[in-house]
Write a structure and sequence with these properties.
alpha+beta, six-stranded mixed β-sheet, elongated, binds adenosine-5'-triphosphate
Length: 355
């Protein structure tokens, strides 16, 4: 478990971390998610020992590491642009941390072969970094970070420089790797989709503070603040209520839009709108609509099947209704948070109920 308590970090008169508290449970894959400049990297680098907080404490597995040098913290670190040793082979790069720790050669060779297999680079051991693709280089970086059996793995936008398809593959791969190895992992990302895809816990940062920590479903369905709600996924406003685009029911008639899922109640009203544009994106279809009464523009997201059976086109009239409105726990930061079950009112962190 990593605990960060009352950590402050200023750069001149700029506050990068503002009395920040977070608990990262052992074995979790926690994403630090937030807009640019919210302090994600500063927090990660403080855990790594590459930045020194002005005040506060950081512990790993109960040990206060606040003043401990990075190499003695038991951490593996991977950056967006991995600084590989270009004159060393993949094998030598991965072995580096073990070689400088003067482990027996045979043991190192066995460990490195094992890790290269784990990251899917078996057979690439004699190549040089320049002979690898960007995705392969990042996997080599992961193998190198894992070689020292770290207690904690810290990843700073590790796939940020790669194209979308490779990123997606590596996310899936990271998820699997984490399932197999259970190393407590903290991943910095500004990409909400990446956080939702990969992490089992997400901490949303804003201006150097944690807005909320919880499972992806917690944050998505029960955002603690407006900021979390708007940051995690798109939000449309329908009749004054925030609603996720895929929670808008669209019909050709008021009755179709009125339909309520069995077992749910819904008091939202049906509104009339005009279809402005229909955008097909893979299996999803986005329908851009304009509210007939207010003139507001908003987007509904449908599956391709639903969209095809509706066959709406630009200019058509549609009827819409919010199927489900996210429940924001407290509407703005700074107001005393209403303690909700499972939320620590002091830190905003989610507290798992005792087993
Ligand atoms: N060495 C530094 N000197 C001065 N200001 C810094 C320094 N490092 C970071 N900052 C500032 O602290 C703030 C937080 O930076 P940080 O890199 O932690 O943000 P981030 O959330 O990781 O952003 P990004 O997603 O853009 O990397 C930023 O406004 C940044 O300009």
């Amino acid at each position: 478990m990593i605990t960060v308590e009352h950590v402050n970090k200023r750069y001149d008169d700029f506050t990068a971390l503002d009395d920040l508290n977070i608990i990262v449970p052992s074995g979790s894959l926690t994403a630090l998610l937030g807009p640019s400049g919210s302090g994600k990297s500063t927090l990660l680098r403080s855990i790594a020992g590459l930045e020194h907080p002005d005040s506060g404490t950081i512990t790993i597995a109960g040990r206060d590491i606040t003043g401990v040098p990075p190499q003695q913290r038991g951490i593996g670190f991977v950056f967006q642009h991995y600084a590989a040793f270009t004159h060393m082979t993949v094998r030598e790069n991965v072995a580096f941390g073990l070689t400088i720790r003067k482990q027996p050669k045979k043991q190192i060779a066995a460990k490195v072969d094992d890790l290269l297999g784990v990251v899917g680079l078996g057979g690439f051991q004699d190549r040089y970094p320049a002979q690898l693709s960007g995705g392969q280089r990042q996997r080599m970086a992961l193998a190198r970070a894992l070689a020292i059996d770290p207690q904690v793995l810290l990843l700073d936008e590790p796939f940020g420089a790669l194209d979308a398809k490779v990123r997606e593959e590596l996310r899936r791969w990271l998820r699997r790797l984490h399932r197999e190895m259970h190393v407590t992992t903290v991943l910095v990302t500004h990409d909400q989709r990446e956080a939702l895809d990969v992490a089992d816990r997400i901490a949303v940062l804003n201006t150097g503070r944690i807005e909320q920590v919880g499972s992806p479903a917690d944050l998505y369905d029960r955002p603690a603040t407006d900021f979390v709600m708007s940051f995690l996924g798109q939000i449309a406003t329908l009749d004054g209520h925030p609603v996720r685009p895929h929670d808008i029911r669209v019909g050709r008639t008021p009755e179709m839009a009125q339909h309520t899922e069995p077992g749910t109640t819904n008091t939202a009203q049906v509104s009339r709108a005009t279809v402005r544009r229909v955008v097909r994106l893979g299996f999803e279809v986005r329908i851009e609509l304009q509210h007939a009464d207010t003139g507001d523009l908003f987007t509904a997201q449908l599956t391709r099947g639903d969209a095809e059976s509706l066959a709406l086109q630009a200019g058509d009239t549609a009827y819409v209704r919010a199927n489900r409105v996210p429940h924001v726990l407290h509407s703005a930061r700074g107001k005393p948070p209403r303690p909700a079950p499972g939320i620590d009112p002091g830190t905003g962190a989610n507290v798992d109920p005792p087993a």
